[in-house]
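Pair request: fold both.
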Amino acid sequence: MIYISYNFTVSPKEPASEILIAELGYAGFESFVDSENGFVGYIQKEEWNENILDAIFVLNNNEFKISYEIEEIAQVNWNKEWENNFNPIQVDGLVSIRAPFHENPNLEYDIVIEPKMSFGTGHHETTHMMIQHLNSLDLKGKKTLDMGCGTGILAIFAEMKGAQPIDAIDIDNWCYLNSIENIERNNCEHISVFEGEASLLKNKKYDVIIANINRNILLNDMAAYANCLNAKGTLLLSGFYKEDIPIIEKEISKYKLKVLSVIERNKWVSLKCSL
């Protein structure tokens, strides 16, 4: 099978890379490999056309400088690609996140992930901070939502912490399938995975909501999160920068939500909120 690769150089690398990857995923790109100055995206030649980037909004955003080189290549060994780029990590000496071929460091919590092209390995600041927030909570018996679940990593950790039942939702089919794989791999029994968006939350109620997406989607869907959060429930938000906190606080205040604590990591932030 023949693939087309796009080697993107992105400045500043974040959040432009994250936004660009999301848009390319919708356009049919199958996988992405991080690089020092951006990333490489791959799409099957039969799914490709020379105008495929015309509708990619972020490429026309003057806040970012993005260039790319195109190459036609033979079959890509995806497992080898991400194995070369996915190193095991640890969060606060309590949580290990690793691939099946990594050695188990025998910490209190051990999460085994095969990320493929899905977002959420713990390497990104937002996922790392969300794990820190979840680790500080008593989740036993708490009905939980992981919105924009990616690899399913946060839903998996929530179950390890005692949460149940758990709904994991992602709009991307690849993420939906990858979450199911990772949930099975970690022997989880209380997580249901759904493919869709915030419209699936109608008539639902949760004690804990995890939303690690991006600022614009969070702002757009905040009403849905607030409407399905139980009294005294906890809303965890991430996917934005420190300078975005005022606009997030302004939006959550419309629904009587307040910020209880903030974690910051390399200019990215994660908020713990409650009614």
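--- second member of the pair ---
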Amino acid sequence: MKCRVCRGPAVIDIRRHNANFCREHFLRLCRDQVKRAIDAFDMLQPDDRVLVAVSGGKDSLALWDLLLELGYRVDGFYVGLGIGDYSDTSTDHAVRFARERGLTLHTVDLRRDHGFDVPHGSRAARRNPCSACGLSKRHLFDEAARRGGYDAVATGHNLDDEAAVLFGNVLRWDPEYLGRQRPVLEARDGFPRKVKPLIRLTERETAAYCLLRGIDYLVDECPLSAGNKHLAYKAALNEIEAMSPGAKHAFYFGFLERASERFATESDLGREGLSPCTRCGAPTPGEVCAFCRLVEAATAAVPVELGRRRGSR
């Protein structure tokens, strides 16, 4: 197996490109793909301050490293979710990555700073754990970007993630979510700009990038994600990709090129009539934002129903 560029020994094959690459040219390919995504969708400007949403996994750490390689000013932001050993390990990976490179990593711990964790909070609030987790992270990323004066929040969503989300949204024909299925969500009404620079790379490629760059990352899946439909959509698309290399890319980028604008107005519906949350100041359509309601439900004292005394009426 030889590298398509230099004809030296290859370390990885990428079937959708019908090509193999050596270490040097694969790493260059990853940088070029990220730069191409940033340029094509006008995600970032050279002098932007960027906050990367860090989980300790391969995608977020690869993204942080790639943006630094491309010359951007980047800090990290990590949310401790309180999911047992899984969160402890993810914290270790995120902190070690930042410390070894002398980078700035901001951290928030749900249990320490807000009085709940995802496992207990989701049950108390009667929310799916993934829903409570996603809501918490989105709110805290937005808040950190606003308070820190960052120009954009960058997330590690890769091609596999975006194709799977699109697959689910198309199966349900959810116009509002289809309207948000874009690589860039511009800043407005108190929300920071959100960008997804990894959309041209797959999970396998970000894992290979971390391996070749010596980046140690969290391998395990979240234990609370069992049964998540998103994983089933990924598995279905993986089978299609195995039979037809490039299918995920064609599906996702075909949507962006031919259909995404048709749903653009739908994505604005949920952001109409926003005002500051009376508790935290975040933009919300109601008086109190969804995160503050989650905190209230998750930290409220549980009432105890006393048994009726014998003989009482």
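Observation on the second member. The domain at 43-219+227-272 is CATH 3.40.50.620 (Rossmann fold).
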